[in-house]
Amino acid sequence: MRIPRALTIAGLDSGGGAGITADLKTFHALGVYGMVALTAVTAQNTLGVRAVQEIDPSIVETQINAVAEDIGVDAAKTGMLSSSPIMEAVARAVKRWGFPLVVDPVMYAKSGDPLIRPEAMETLKRVIIPIAKVVTPNAPEASHLAGFRVETLDDARRAAKVIAEELHPEIVIVKGGHLTGNESIDIVYFRDTGEYRELRAPRIDTKNTHGTGCSFSAAIAAGLARGLSPWDAIKLAKELITTAIKYSLPLGHGHGPVNPMAWLELRAYRADVIDEMNKALSMIEENADLIGKYIPEVQSNLGYALPAFYARDLNDVAAIPGRIVRYMGKAKPSGPPTFGVSSHVASYILTAMKYDSEVRSAMNIKYDDRIIEAAKELGYVISSYDRRQEPPEVKAREGASIPWGTEQAIKSVGRVPDIIYHLGDWGKEPEIVVLGKSPVEVVSKLLAVLRRIDEKSRF
Ligand SMILES: Nc1ncnc2c1ncn2[C@@H]1O[C@H](COP(=O)(O)OP(=O)(O)OP(=O)(O)O)[C@@H](O)[C@H]1O
Ligand SMILES: Cc1ncc(CO)c(N)n1
Q1: Mutate to test the pocket of ligand 2, among 44, 50, 80, 217 (most ligand atoms within 8 A of CB)
Q2: What is the model's pLDDT at position 454?
Q3: pLDDT at residue number 459
Q4: First CA to last CA distance, the chain
Q5: How many Cα atoms within 13 Å fall on the side-chain side of residue 435?
Q6: Which residue from 419, 418, 390 is spatially nearest to 403, judged by alpha carbons?
Q7: Which of 146, 218, 229, 322 could form a disulfide with 26 if both were Cys (CB 3.0 to 4.6 A apart)?
Q8: C-alpha–C-alpha distance, residues 76 and 286, integer Å
């Protein structure tokens, strides 16, 4: 087994959003072992750069040599290279080892503070960009490199070609983060074939884009380290960065950091949710006779949402496709837990989570007075809403009834209750919904109530 290894040659952002911390998160999110040659320490936060201490160029070079010689480097990227001597040292080491290099020609932080000495601009063009396999300027950086203003996609296309032909990197990506439009479009130009390609993604409305360029270029290097073709590595990087921006973090008072770990966390949490659902489904199957008595006409469902930060819509809630039905008197899940298959129970959950982010699971069952009574005796918090009170404007809006009802029920007891019920309306069956932190907790609450009813009926 080969462990892919990538190196970042870049600066430290003390705020943790850009530079080597963004790069390392990105490498590891993509399953690549990450190493660092530090070029500078910046005292920085989401608002700006307060101070910069450059690392001695010989130390930068020795860091690269040390890791390349012993651990090995399958691909590398450069970020902040602030001075000509640092650039010369980096170029020497890169040429010595011959690994593919992605160059993010960092000039300014998102705050506008410079990260390169003015006199090093020429060295960047003469010494660093020519040894790049891929170079990834944003619009302002492309303007500096091409020598004209880059404000439109057409400018970006012209700039990509000029940079490729004059400075000789293999592939130029002029990024569209700073351009306008409802898509964020990057222009990719291949010098050898003269071919253009585009990377497109919906533009996400957020100011938390600190570190996007760092993470994007690190993702390309990670893809190359994994042995992907340059184009496949670039497409993967676009997917990763779009996810990292969608789930960027509202931290600090300026531009908050992108979240490359979202790439991993989403996958891990999705797997966790399915595992927990399966545990709860086993409990349902073990008690299929008891629960079978309380499956309503519309059938039951059990849902579990991703943690609140990742639970944005119905697709982020897992439930049972085809619901939990009554078959030969027994409760029976019709299929494996799957994301995005329930709107009813998911709607209860997503509304409850707005009031208590810990409450991520719910199950609906048939209404029965005895359930309410037994739940009260067990000390559960119970609330209800009246579907007949639903305002006409809510009724008219598709999918608005459950959120409205759930909010009514939460507000009337001042917290997310254990149980919400309603007594129905014309054509709407009454129902009970059990809520909890996990599906195991929800099914445990339900079983406690149903067992109590059973015990009482024996006397
Ligand atoms: N709001 C956004 N929505 C979607 N994609 C975006 C957005 N902003 C940037 N991107 C994408 O992120 C990637 C990085 O582009 P960007 O132009 O922001 O880099 P940058 O300015 O070098 O970043 P930084 O200086 O913060 O490191 C590109 O693929 C770009 O299209
Ligand atoms: C250290 C460092 N590198 C790169 C950038 C560009 O985002 C930054 N803000 N800080």
Answers
A1: 80
A2: 87
A3: 65
A4: 66
A5: 30
A6: 390
A7: 218
A8: 54
Is residue 153 in contact with ligand 1, taking CB distance under 6 Å? Answer: no
Which CB contacts under 8 angstroms, 24+ apart, belong to 185-193?
A: 185/153, 186/238, 187/153, 187/156, 187/157, 187/160, 188/160, 188/231, 188/234, 189/157, 189/160, 189/161, 189/163, 189/164, 190/164, 191/164, 191/165
Please, what's the largest Cα pairwise distance for the chain?
Answer: 91
- CA–CA gap between residue 258 and residue 204 (Å, rounded): 12
Residue 136 has a pLDDT of: 98
Overall size of the chain counted in residues: 459
Atom of ligand 2 nearest to the CA of 42: 1
Q: Of 47, 38, 138, 48, nearest to 86 (Cα)?
A: 38
CA distance 81 to 72: 22
Please name which of 145, 128, 150, 131 lies closest in space to residue 79, comparing C-alpha atoms.
128
Could you tell me the distance, in angstroms and rounded to a whole number, from the CA of residue 216 to the centre of ligand 2?
A: 12
Any idea where the domains of the chain sit in the sequence? 5-257, 265-457
If you ran DSSP here, which 8-state letter would residue 31 be given? T
Read off the pLDDT of residues 286-338 as tens digits, 9 standing for 90 and up: 999 999 999 999 999 999 999 999 999 999 999 999 999 999 999 999 999 99
Q: What is the CATH number of domain 265-457?
A: 3.40.225.10
Ligand 2 centre distance from Cα of residue 167 (Å)? 23
Entry pTM: 0.94
Nearest CA to ligand 2 atom 4: 19
The model's pLDDT over 128-176, given as tens digits with 9 standing for 90+, comes to 999 999 999 999 999 999 999 999 999 999 999 999 999 999 999 999 9
Q: Which atom of ligand 2 is nearest to the CA of 49?
A: 9
CATH of 5-257 among 3.40.109.10, 3.50.50.60, 3.40.50.720, 3.40.1190.20? 3.40.1190.20
Residue nearest ligand 1's atom 18 by CA: 177
Ligand showing the shortest atom-to-Cα distance for residue 199: 1
Which residue's CA is the closest to the ligand 1 atom numbered 17?
177
Give the integer Cα–Cα distance in Å for 107 and 336.
Answer: 50
| Low-confidence spans in the chain with pLDDT less than 50 | none
